[in-house]
Amino acid sequence: ELIRPAVDGATRVIGAALDAGVERVVMTSSVAAIRGSGKPKEAPYTEDDWTDVRTVAAYAQSKTLAEEAACALVDRRGEREKLAVINPSAILGPVMPDDDSFSLEGIQRLLDGMPAVPRIGFSWVDVRDVSATHIAAMENPAAGGQRFIASGEFRWLIEVSERLRERVPELA
């Protein structure tokens, strides 16, 4: 349900874009395609890391396999410089009306008052920074053939809930 549509969709869209003669395709992937590489916890992830799909759940598999398929497609066509990939972490920030993304669902649950907060956390990135990264990858010739991690600081969910309570007490 996740993997085949992700792979087929990525290759179909990128193939059509290349057929139409675009100069650059900027693909949105995820850090899920990087962070499952099996590196030791203390080692930082880089754009050279790839998730081992044998060790992760379907979502991370779908992101990794779609990105690998996209890279294989541009490589086969000899057009690697036309693809840049952005790998964002959990995205937050101003939203479009009716946006019900996973990241926002978690924040809404915190605002609604969860009886307990699980001890999990994420590296968060502002949607405006992700957007700026996409634009830079589209406009900068050196971005072709590259991957870019878009991520900010790691925060535990309890820290996020405390920040929400401080910044928007009327919603908390």
Summary tags:
172 residues, alpha/beta, three-stranded mixed beta sheet, 5 helices, 15% strand, globular
Walk me through what this model shows:
With 172 residues, the chain is of the alpha/beta class. Helix content is 41%, strand content 15%. It has five helices and six strands; from the N terminus they run αβαββαβαββα. The strands form two sheets. The chain has a three-stranded parallel β-sheet, sandwiched between helices. Strands 3-4-6 form a three-stranded mixed β-sheet. Helix 3 links the parallel strand 3 (90-92) and strand 4 (121-126). Helix 1 runs parallel beside helix 2 (58-76). The model has no long low-confidence stretch (mean pLDDT 91).
Please describe the topology of this protein.
Blueprint: H1 3-19, E1 25-28, H2 58-76, E2 83-88, E3 90-92, H3 102-112, E4 121-126, H4 127-139, E5 147-150, E6 154-156, H5 157-167
Parallel strand pairs: 1-2, 2-5, 3-4
Antiparallel strand pairs: 4-6
Helix pairs in contact: 1-2
Strand percentage lies at 15-25%
Which word captures the global form?
globular
Unreliable stretches covering 5 or more consecutive residues: none
H-E order: HEHEEHEHEEH
| Average residue pLDDT | 91
The portion of residues assigned to helices is: 40-55%
Total number of β-strand segments? 6
Rg (CA only): 18 Å
Largest sheet: 3 strands, parallel
Q: How many H/I helical runs?
A: 5
Q: What's the end-to-end separation, in Å?
A: 35 Å
- Coarse structural class: alpha/beta
Instruction: Output the strand order for the largest sheet.
Output: 1-2-5
